[in-house]
Amino acid sequence: MVAPALTEIKIPQHLIPLDGRFGSGPSKIRAEQIDAVVRASRNILGTSHRQAPVKNLVGSVLTQLRQLFQLPSDWEVVVGNGGASLFWDAATFGLIKNRSSHLVFGEFSSKFAQAAQLAPHLGDPIVIESAPGTVPTIQQADSDLNIDTYCLTHNETSTGASMQLSRPALPTDALVVVDGTSAAGGIAWSPTDVDVYYFSPQKGFASEGGTWIALCSPRAVDRINKIKSDGRWCPPSLDLSIARENSRANQTYNTPSVSTFVMLNEQLGWMLDNGGLSWCTERTQQSADILYGWATSRAYTEPFIANPQHRSPVVGTIDFVGIDAAQVATVLRNNGIVDTEPYRKLGRNQLRVSMFPAVEPSDVQLLTASIDYIVEQLS
Fold first, then answer.
1. Is the pTM of this model over 0.85?
2. Taking residues 223-241, what's their average pLDDT?
3. All domains in the chain, ordered by first residue
4. Strands 350-354 and 315-320
């Protein structure tokens, strides 16, 4: 039997997810968020970000973030423009005092380490790296290493590996700074283990990129203030003390994407109305159980992350054996099921599936059924 051309494979309608967006960022945006943007177009979009309507919107976002993550009362929510990539640069100016230690296990965790390596005013960072698909172990720094900042990644978006956060005991004054970009809103964490938890809203919060949000402990705020008072030069757009001052006034240093805050505000309300972070994490875990359960039960698939404890509940990576995953992704895309391709630099024969809170677990189930159908047609 000759396999049909990829363009000829039509997935039966009853197997197609109701929403076919499975991208790991930008991710699926709920229709209610777009409705909120339409409503905002009448009185908020196109108005000054220094006036009450927009400042009230930003204030609502900050308040709801505090509620979602159940932050202690003395923590601060700091926001700025530029996304998590810009925050790495800002952190080299405003959070790392002298020397940092980085756990690297994929593309995005490596970029923060590179930023610290290139910063001329910092000492060479310690970089503890493990192969993609694994998670390195936090190593407590010796006192003579002069480590003042541990830089961790909660969820490596490029590989679908997730790490358990914990605070090293030494040095006692070291900050724990965590990239939560793809984990935030979908994986639980405790403020006792972290000093800065930063992310962008285009993944778990189903909004747009170009904004960074940092949840900061009093220790982190003290570090920002100390570095500032010591006179280290910093461009204003990267100055975390300026970002903090503006955030206290419910605004950003320079003009933000107001529609991003509108969609984020709507998504946060939806999350809180449904039960908060515990509801979100139960939902992502349900989707993950479906995806990984399916992958381990098929002869032609297996989870890329070998250790089940490190398999992300928000970004699933599935290797294919004897089947061209690129062909599967092409057929999915031809049928309106999009963004299942793997991270480009990883170079594996796999699919990558987002399971952020906005993604319906039932759609993940239908996605696996669609893949089974495609494999049957290709075989």
1. yes
2. 97
3. 6-29+276-378 (3.90.1150.10), 31-272 (3.40.640.10)
4. antiparallel
